[in-house]
Amino acid sequence: xxxxxxxxxxxxxxxxxxxxxxxxxxxxxxxxxxxxxxxxxxxxxxxxxxxxxxxxxxxxxxxxxxxxxxxxxxxxxxxxxxxxxxxxxxxxxxxxxxxxxxxxxxxxxxxxxxxxxxxxxxxxxxxxxxxxxxxxxxxxxxxxxxxxxxxxxxxxxxxxxxxxxxxxxxxxxxxxxxxxxxxxxxxxxxxxxxxxxxxxxxxxxxxxxxx
Length: 211
Fold this sequence. Notes:
The chain is 23% helix and 33% strand.
């Protein structure tokens, strides 16, 4: 894993691109989950493949899951960051509240939300990780692929580790943000992503649950 890949959210300056199509896609998935026909369920499973789940999508209706809670990173919480005093966390709280049934039932999934600027002038993609598994996650490792179908890649089998030391234990039915640094060329590619062309995969997951 490259140095500084998982930056702390407290170093953020500003959201840059306003590219929130994944949030809209997640809302659409939740709406489709309320339908009772087999055809709709099949469409939902296909759409959720692009949310970067680690397992097979569950046909459980979105109505059957608990509302999501926004979780603050451990390091940020220790630094005194709260939803009330952080513009970023306040924004993310609204994102989560707008789609409380988001995520894949009985799975762990990722949603790339936006590009943010770091204090050192670099940029990162802001991801929202959603834990819909049946237990809190102490640590999770996976290889992340993100790019355009039949096009370029921003990440290809990029190693990612979200562990208790920095992120904290990811509680059940929680959404927690994290960052992965990107270069200027990757920024341009990210802005080209749409619901139709995005290709996102999580491979080789290794999860340690909280006992």
